[in-house]
Amino acid sequence: MRFVSAKGEYAVMAILALSLHSGKAPLQVKSIAQKKSIPLRFLEQVMSLLKKKGLVESVRGPHGGYRLTRRPDQIFFGEVLQAVEGPLDLEELPLNRNGGEKIETAVVNEVWAEIGQALNTHLNSITFEDLCNRKREKEEKEKEILMFHI
Q1: Distance CA 102, CA 80 (A)
Q2: How far apart are CA 119 and CA 89, in angstroms?
Q3: Could you read off the pLDDT of 22-36 as tens digits, one per residue?
Q4: C-alpha angle 121-126-128 in degrees, rounded to nearest 5
Q5: 39, 58, 49: which is closest to 11 by C-alpha?
Q6: pTM for the whole thing?
Q7: What is the sign, positive or negative, of the torsion defined by CA atoms of 25, 10, 129, 124?
Q8: How far apart are CA 32 and CA 17, in angstroms?
Q9: How many CB atoms lie within 10 A of CB 147?
Q10: What is the distance between the alpha carbons of residues 110 and 10, in angstroms, rounded to a whole number?
Q11: With the C-alpha atoms ordered 72, 75, 77, 80, is the resulting torsion angle positive or negative?
């Protein structure tokens, strides 16, 4: 079950690119789009949403682009998804859908609510610094594997 649209996926990839580039000159949308294989026009819309939510800021000029408004360790995965997707609530089953089984439907809805709460808690515990560290670890492991084969 996938609950994140392409817009959410692109927002995460853009914030990750900016996080990996943090502390350097702003990144241009065109550069992010090329590196991440994201359609430029679509990424521009995503960046606009991220800017409205205060996660990124734009810098004008020939060397302009976007940069994070906070450090990567202060930006959470769930926060970025919610900025472009809206609330990440799992839908409840409509009551009385199955012919009046209100109690059973209510019990199932409680479980969906519990799952949604656990999902939000987990997504809001992962920072973009965590993602940067995971990427670096994978790159190091990849180098070790390549070196082993030589």
Answers
A1: 36
A2: 9
A3: 888 999 999 999 999
A4: 145
A5: 49
A6: 0.85
A7: positive
A8: 7
A9: 8
A10: 31
A11: negative
The residue among 30, 14, 10 whose CA lies nearest residue 22 is 14
Phi then psi for 28, rounded to 5 degrees? -80, 145
- 22, 74 contact by CB (below 8 A): no
Written as one string, the DSSP assignment of 105-137 is HHHHHHHHHHHHHHHHHHHTT-BHHHHHHHHHH
What would the pLDDT profile of 34-44 be if each residue is shown by its tens digit? 999 999 999 99
Helix (H), strand (E) counts: the chain: 6, 2
What's domain 6-149's architecture?
Answer: Orthogonal Bundle (1.10)
Helix, strand, or coil (residue 1): coil
